[in-house]
Design a protein that fits this description.
heterotrimer, A mainly alpha (216), B alpha/beta (299), C alpha/beta (244), B: 299 residues, alpha/beta, D-Maltodextrin-Binding Protein, domain 2, 2 domains, 11 helices, C: 244 residues, 6-stranded mixed sheet, 9 helices, 10 strands
Chain lengths: 216, 299, 244
């Protein structure tokens, strides 16, 4: 059973990895989603379907692919990111991007066509309309980010394979739970699970408050 | 002209915030960028201090030996060791890929192949533990006290007593299949209802055996750690072929130039030194000494 | 002085259906030009062509004598000198202030000027006190006034109105018509208004055009159009049409 300050380290790493992945995933996924939702280009439907399909991409499979990529033998081996938090962030970002992108696309396509016409008649060009539509759809986009974060913080397969669950280094709450279960420390596992739940809950409440206040 | 407006003209509202459209997004993106950079910086910092990556098997971890040893190694040599505890196959594979600086495993045949392929710099024996047959106190197959696992397995087969196999190609599983081959049979879960495969690690397998009142093959280290919570006891031990030797193998720098060679060799030498060996000998669980030092420095 | 808007033999089809079959008109500066006709005649299409949202299949539209490529920078510039108000006001999910300021933001008007202009526009339509309210929470009449302020604040040289009071009660209709006249008188803008409401056309327009079968059947000064039209179609339309 990890000692108390060890738990703190585990919690901190979970938050760091999940938050960073969600941020990067959003910075990539939101603009991409906006472009796909608005711009007419050939193969647009295909890209949309692809994004939605990747929603359900199995995290363990993502972990395996990342493992093969980041291993020293692999194409990205020179980075030395296997068994490190950076590798875990990379793997989770890969999972978060399609989620954020897909929900953003849905949210933006729900923006009324009339609004587009209004913006045009008031003198908007394509880029300006994209920004405006994104702003109109901000509630849905915010949901996208939250869902992405939810996926990242609760994920276990990819971070286990890519991180290696190394004590003091790449162990997060979910992988710690796996370890405790494998050693039949069910009480400890449940405690960790409760902490994970409470933290997720707190994060979502905070974000909801921010949204209600119109900050986001 | 009555236009029916709200409020009276002449009352100018307080200064209002600028329309948020792009401005807010820009602020958010900048904030996010800063956070990301901070996150990356922290992550980088925590990994840049040179540390040895050790790939080993779950038995060294689950017995508690590894944490015990590594804390002393850090004190003695000032080098931190990070370890991934996976199955034997994956541990050696990590060595093959150059992802690990040093491996500590217990699979002599696979280790020799590993060395022959040139992935290891040198191979030093470290310690041994043994595999034991554990079972319910009711001992339905009547094997208690035997020192011959083959005979025990034959009786288990004959009496069709419940047996849980690891079923995961781990070192333990390979040993178990070896014993069955000495009996002359290979039970399968589909054909033999008394034979079950857990497909999991030693811990969950032991729990399953305890719950179902079944026999299983375990390494004594992991068993001792859990014994108090299990309804099982050792029924067969001290069988010579079941001795389980561990070796430490630093990676070969000419095959894998990126490894932390100095640290890997320091660890390999330390664990077979007098200091390391006496620590191994002094490690006990519930009064039992699971690992016996057999160290020789071949590096 | 060249006319601000000239339509030369403009055709437009949507798929197999040919909606506009050659309309010609010359709209003068500062005039209020009304287009009336049965539903589906192509009135809205005409406005969309004028606003450079769609391009004609054949024929030309000249802005102060110049024809413009539909997707060009010059077209965008011209579009920014015009504004359109549509039947159902679409307001952004933001405050009234932000809605009205939108066009100014699009054009990169400096912040210091925006506040003054927005408040002036809100004062013009009588919604000064509502500046901080959420625009989508206001009544239909108020939202249409926001739409008017949103367009007026841009000081467009050409204002296009597409049945913009069709959904409003008489009081609001009168209010917005008043704003339209005041706007023309105070800024000298050219206004093209599409309407079902013949009484509205009579009240507002300098000239009226009847769009029938894809062509302008008659264009005449308002008084003559209603009292003594020259075309039989116009007579038939005027007698048979129900205004609301």
């Amino acid at each position: 059973m990890p000692i108390d300050f060890e738990i703190l380290g585990i919690v901190w790493l979970s938050l760091l990895v999940a938050t960073t992945s969600t941020l990067i995933g959003s910075l990539v996924g939101i603009p991409l989603g906006a472009i796909v939702a608005i711009k007419e280009f050939r193969g647009r439907n295909f890209v949309r379907t692809l994004a939605f399909t990747f929603y359900g991409f199995p995290p363990v499979l993502a972990g395996l692919l990342m493992f093969l990529l980041l291993s020293r033998e692999g194409p990205l081996g020179f980075l030395g990111w296997l068994f490190t938090p950076m590798g875990m962030i990379l793997a989770q970002t890969f999972l978060v991007v399609p989620i954020v992108m897909g929900i953003t696309i849905s949210a933006m396509m729900a923006v009324e066509k009339r609004l587009h016409e209004t913006a045009l008649t008031l003198g908007a060009d394509d880029r300006q309309w994209r920004a405006t539509a994104l702003h109109e759809a901000r509630a849905g986009v915010f949901t996208a980010v939250m869902v992405g974060f939810g996926r990242a913080i609760s994920e276990v397969g990819a971070v286990l394979i890519v991180g290696g669950n190394i004590r003091g280094s790449t162990r997060v709450m979910t992988t710690a739970i796996v370890l405790e279960v494998s050693q039949a420390h069910y009480v400890e596992a449940t405690v960790l699970g409760a902490i994970l739940f409470v933290i997720s809950f707190a994060v979502f409440i905070l974000l909801q408050r921010l949204q209600a206040r119109g900050v986001v | 002209m009555a236009l029916g407006g709200r409020g009276t003209s002449g009352r100018i509202p307080d200064p209002l915030p600028w329309p948020s459209f792009v401005a807010a997004w820009r602020i958010a993106a900048v904030l996010a960028g800063i956070l990301v950079l901070a996150g990356l910086a922290v992550t980088w910092g925590s990994v840049r201090a040179p540390s040895v990556l050790l790939a080993t098997t779950t038995s060294t971890r689950d017995s508690g030996l590894l944490d015990y040893l590594l804390s002393h190694f850090l004190e003695d040599e000032g080098i931190s060791v990070r370890y991934v505890a996976v199955g034997t196959g994956q541990a050696l594979d990590a060595g093959r890929r150059g992802d690990a600086d040093v491996v500590l495993v217990h699979a002599p045949v696979a280790e020799l192949a590993f060395m022959a392929e040139g992935h290891g710099l040198c191979r030093s024996p470290v310690m041994r533990n043994e595999f034991v047959v554990v079972g319910p106190t009711s001992d339905p197959a009547g094997v208690r006290g035997l020192t011959n696992a083959t005979e025990a397995f034959r009786r288990i087969y004959g009496s069709e007593s419940l047996f849980i196999s690891r079923g995961d190609n781990s070192g333990t599983h390979i040993m178990e299949r070896q014993i069955w081959s000495w009996v002359g049979i290979q039970p399968t879960a589909s054909r033999d209802p008394w034979y079950k495969e857990s497909g999991q690690g030693m811990g969950p397998t032991l729990i399953m055996a305890s719950e179902l009142g079944a026999y299983t093959l375990a390494d004594d280290g992991t068993f001792f750690v859990r014994a108090s919570s299990l309804a099982l006891e050792i029924v067969v031990s001290s069988d010579p072929p079941l001795q389980n030797p561990y070796s430490v193998i630093p990676a070969n720098p000419s095959r894998h130039p990126g490894v932390f060679l100095a640290g890997a060799v320091a660890f390999a030498k330390w664990i077979v030194s007098e200091r390391g060996q006496s620590l191994i000998a002094s490690y006990t669980v519930d009064g039992h000494q699971p690992f016996h030092p057999t160290g020789e420095d071949r590096c | 002085m060249t006319a601000p808007l000239v339509l030369l033999d403009v055709h437009k089809s949507f798929g197999p259906k040919e909606v506009l079959r050659g309309i010609d008109a010359e709209i003068q500066e500062k005039e209020i030009f009304a287009i009336v006709g049965p539903s589906g005649a192509g009135k809205t299409t005409t406005l969309r062509l004028l606003d450079l949202i769609e391009a004609p299949d054949r024929g030309q539209i000249l802005y102060h004598g110049r024809a413009l490529e539909p997707r060009s920078g010059a077209a965008l510039e011209q579009r920014r000198r015009m504004a359109m108000i549509m039947q159902n006001p679409a307001t952004f999910r933001a405050s009234v202030f932000e809605n009205v300021a939108y066009g100014l933001w699009l054009r990169g008007v400096p912040r210091v000027d925006v506040r003054g202009r927005v408040f002036a526009a809100l004062d013009f339509v009588g919604l000064l006190g509502a500046a901080q309210e959420r625009a989508d929470r206001l009544s239909g009449g108020e939202q249409q006034r926001i739409a008017f302020a949103r367009a007026a604040v841009l000081r467009p040289e050409i204002l296009l109105l597409d049945e913009f009071t069709a959904n409003l009660d008489p009081a609001n209709v009168r209010a917005l018509e008043g704003l339209t006249l005041r706007f023309r008188d105070e800024t000298g803008a050219t206004i093209v208004i599409v309407t079902h409401n013949l009484f509205q056309a009579k009240r507002l327009a300098d000239r009226v055009a009847l769009l029938l079968d894809g062509r302008f059947a008659e264009i005449a000064p308002s008084v003559r159009f209603f009292r003594d039209p020259s075309r039989p179609e116009t007579r038939a339309f005027l007698s048979g049409e129900m205004a609301y």
